Amino acid sequence: MFKRLFFLLRITITWGLAVSLVVGMYSSLPLIGNFELPAVLFGFGTMALVIAGAFSHLHRVKLVAGRIDNETLDNRQKRLIEIPLEAGEAFDLVDAAIRELPGVSDVRSARDSLQVRAKVARPQLYGEPPLRRWNPLLWFAPEHNQLQATVLPAGDSGRVTLICEPESPAWRDWFLVDDGINYENAEAISRAITRRIGERRRSEQASATQTATEKELSEARLHLLHAQVEPHFLYNTLASAQLLTRSDPARAEAILGHLIQYLRRSLPNAEDEMSTLGTELERALAYLEILKIRMGERLNVQTDIPDELRATPLPAMMLQTLVENAIKHGLEPRTGGGTVWLRARRDDAGVAVTVADDGDGFNSKSSGTGIGLKNVRERLRLRYNGAANLSVAANFPRGVAATLTVPASGATSHE
Question: Do the domain assignments include residue 414?
């Protein structure tokens, strides 16, 4: 109540002095100054309209802001808004919010200085313009309001100073009211900024959720590949062992022993898909020993992996995939077979593990789809977050060499 009374007294006294000055000047005029009735009518009429307009302003401010105080009654509004974005991104967000304000025009934005200036048309209220000429509070009111937004960098965030005010000198505020329009504009821009920040956060959360879901699906597919033992290899090995039980029991026993060793190393680990180079080497050698029994002299295996590198962390089944590729797409298509080399070396980039063959190489007519190598690269991306890679190149004088380069210390991905 005190705020309303003070506002009414202020606006009434200000206009009363102005009206008194005008009436005094009218009374000093020769001849017509003797007619007091026009001056009295002007004075009382003007003051009545001023008081009515002041009550109207109070009522609308109450409707718009829900309260009446110095802040809501002020024609000039200022807001400080914290935006949790880098200053450049905060500026783009503020600029977009201002451009969507109803009635905005003449928007001038300077990205280098992080400032936005604009004009906002004053809306037509209370059936204007017919009543405008009779409302003293609008006689000298500007047709536009103006706003200015400045973004101040504050580390990883931006602080916005927003000013909404009439396009007129400050001394006119003693005579004029804006019916809460600048308060509305300031609140509208603040809401738009808050809404855009919320949309951005929801988008980021949705993206993070989608990425996490895709990663979980990828991990599930990789665990499935990890647990999978190729049916044809298993059937062929068991068939070979069954055949050898009659003609060569010793070889049958050997092939079953290598199969047991291979299967033991191929069981999936429910806790972690990481293994070691030594464990993966044992699995690959068990697989190759089985193939040597089946292929005979057509297959030769050479291993050069130092003992100190066998503890190197390595995703399970990854070395096995490269060995199977060398056999299927390199040596099996050749009548004379060939050699598979398994090597490992330490360098500045980590540990490089190479599986090479002297088979048909890139000229092979095998029906490989490349899914195996694609899965290896996907697993490396998920596990090492770009710190590991797979390279495939031609071997000399023929064949293919596939090299895994992984960090010596293990995985570097962020779970």
Answer: no
Q: What would the DSSP string read from start to end of 74-99?
A: -SSEEEEEEESS-HHHHHHHHHHHHH
- For 123-142, write each residue's pLDDT tens digit: 877 665 555 566 777 777 78
CB contact at 8 A, 159 and 114: no
Q: Could you say which of 189, 213, 237 is where a domain stops?
A: 213
Q: Determine, yes or no, domain membership for 221.
A: no
Domain that holds residue 316: 228-406
Give the closest residue to 273 by CA, choosing from 231, 310, 328, 218.
218
Number of domains in the chain: 3
Q: How many residues does the chain have?
A: 415
* Residue 330 · residue 357 · CB < 8 Å: yes
Give Cα separations from 104 to 123, 190, 262, 311 (angstroms): 11, 15, 74, 68
Clarify whether residues 93 and 149 are in a common domain: yes
Q: Reduced to 3 states, what is the DSSP secondary structure of residue 340?
A: strand
Taking the CB of residue 30, how many other CB atoms lie within 10 A of it? Answer: 6
Q: Supply the pTM of this predicted model.
A: 0.53
Q: Same domain, yes or no, for 115 and 244? A: no
Task: Round to whole Å and give the CA distance between 208 and 202.
Answer: 10
Q: What is the pLDDT of residues 236-260, one digit of tens each?
A: 777 777 777 878 888 888 878 877 7
Phi and psi at residue 4, to the nearest 5°: -65, -45
| Tokens 């500007």, located at residue | 142
Q: Are residues 97 and 113 in the same domain?
A: yes
Contact 129, 178 (CB under 8 A): no
